[in-house]
Amino acid sequence: MRIATWNVNSIKARSERLMRWLEKYEPDVLCLQELKAEDAGFPLAEVQAAGYSAVLYGQKTYNGVAILSREPVNDVQAGLNDGVDDPQARVLSAEVHGLTFLSCYVPNGGEPSSEKFAYKLKWLERLLAYLERHHGSREKLVLCGDLNIAPADIDVARPDEWRDTVLCHPLVREAFQALIAFGLVDSFRALRTDSAYSWWDYRMLGFPKGNGLRIDHILVTKDVLPRCKQVQIDREERKGKLPSDHAPVFIDLD
DNA sequence: ATGGTTGCTTAGCAA
């Protein structure tokens, strides 16, 4: 069973690449982030023609997440549902194959001194509270997405350049460790000791210069980890004409 | 410190 996550940075701009990627990698479940479109703008017919069902939590211009699956999904839940008045479409949950999948787009955070950074930290606290409420068993959970956190310096090609920015800030790394302490495992780091990156800034030509960070993750509960046979980041997808600034990450489960 | 690039929306913001 192949599970993937990909921040497409606009589903409309990336639909052709999405269809090619589905055909080539044949994931069973694919979590998408940054659709930047309402549900009506999602290429649902094409995705269905390729053999996938899709559940959507879209938003105009910003954010927006989805879960694509070869099998129909159950128990769909959009948002954190914690009573906070938050219009940003950043998390979607669905059950399939006995596992719950979360597609998460964690706030970027802007600058560490900004309101956006405060929102990022609060959002991560709310995510943790959501996990406690809905997944207290700490089982059968696969949390996918653009978490906008590089967990450690090994996940950053040029750590000195990114030190204390919102992707590497000690407070967001602490929040990442709180997810680990909850009972989630970073599948990439559990299976690999090397550095590989999932995002390169369009600005400053981050990709050609190799200035990458690993900020897209597939976190699994401990019961799922033994089934995990490999973790890959499809760096090739970042190449060529008009790529997303993020590469897809995927795991293969027995 | 600054600049550089995309995408959405239409000059400015977000990443």
Gist of the model:
By secondary structure, this protein is of the alpha+beta class. It is built from six helices and 14 strands.
Structure in words:
This protein is of the alpha+beta class. The chain has one domain: Deoxyribonuclease I, Chain A (4-Layer Sandwich). It contains six helices and 14 strands. The strands form three sheets. The protein has a six-stranded mixed beta sheet. Strand 3 and strand 4 form a beta hairpin. Helix 3 runs parallel beside helix 5. It starts with a strand and ends with a strand. The mean pLDDT is 98. The chain binds one DNA strand of 15 nucleotides through loops.
Keywords:
254 residues, 6-stranded mixed β-sheet, Deoxyribonuclease I, Chain A, single chain, DNA-binding
Corresponding CATH architecture = 4-Layer Sandwich
Q: Which strand order spans the largest sheet, edge to edge or round the barrel? A: 3-4-2-1-14-13
Number of strands: 14
Whole-number total of structural domains: 1
pLDDT < 50 stretches: none
Mean pLDDT: 98
Task: Write down the CATH class.
Answer: Alpha Beta
Structure classification? alpha+beta
Rg from C-alpha positions?
17 Å
Number of helices: 6
CATH superfamily: Endonuclease/exonuclease/phosphatase
- What percent of residues are in strands? 25-35%
